[in-house]
Predict the structure.
Amino acid sequence: MDDNSEFLVFGATGQQGGAVARALKAKGRTVRAFVRNPDSAKAMALAGEGISLAKGDLFDTDSIDRAMAGIDGVFSVQTSSPGGEVSDQQEVDQGKAIADSALRHGVRHLVYSSGGGAGKGPTGMGHFDSKSEIEAYVQGLPMATTITRPASFMEMMMLPGMGLPEGEFTFFMRPDQLMQMIAVNDLGRINAEILMAPDRFSGRAIELSSASVTGEDLARAFTKAAGRPITYRRFSDELLDSNPFLKRLAELVDDGLLAGVADIPALEREFGALTSLDAWLAADGKSLFEAALNAGKADVALR
C-alpha cells in the first residue's frame, strides 16, 4: 500500500477497531471509521484525532457500500453474541456483508479479526464457530485477505467482578496453567502493519499474543503493581457449574484451544517487541488496574 491509501475500520469505537484506527493514523495513513452514532463521545474523539467518520449500520448493506467507496484496505471486526447486541447468525451475516462489499468495491486487502478459539474445528460454542464460518467465507473470496486471531485481551482482566478490591483475582486458567494474552495496543499496531502490506500477509491466518502467563504469574505481577498481596484462584466450580458459557470457556482453556497457540518469538521477529504483562501494568494498563483495584472502595467509605 502506498502513502495515499485509505483504510476503513469497523468497530472503531470499540477496543480492537479503535486501536487499529489509531495505529494507522499514527503511521500517517488516511483512516475512515464506520460508526453508528457520529455524535457519540468515542466517535467524536476519533474525529478529533483526524479520523473521518462514516455513519452506518452493519444491518444496512447500503451504508456499508457507501463507506467502502474509494477504500484500499479494510479492518473487519464484529460484535460477538455474548455482548447481547447480536445473535451468532447476525454476526456471521455482518462479517459476510463487509467482505462482499469489499469485493464489490475492489478493495486491495481485507483483514478479518477473528478469535483464538476459531479456525481449528467446531467448538460447540457459537461465539467461536461463528467466527470460523466468517473466516472460511473470507478466505474463499477472490481478493487479498488475512485472518488475525487475537488471544484474550489483557484489558479484559480489568472487568468488574474479578475480585481485585478484595485482594484476589479469579480467571480461567489453573494456577500453574499457561494462557496467552495480548495488549490491545499491540493488536492495533500489528493489524495496522498487516493492513498496509497485502503482498506480504495475504492468504495467512496469524495467531496474535503478547505474553504467555500462568495464574501464579498474574498473582506475582498484580501483587507488585498493587504494592500489597494479591492471590490468584481459578473461577470456582460452583460458579462454572452455574454458568454454562463460562464453564465451556474454562473447558476450552483446559483443552488448550483457548490457552493460545501463538508463536510469540516469531511474532516479535516479524512485528517487533511485544508488551509483557509487567510492562502493560506499568504503562497502558496502569490506570485500568488501579481503577479495578479500587472499585467499590468509595461506596464502602460512604456507608
Observations:
- Residues 88-104 form the longest helix (17 residues).
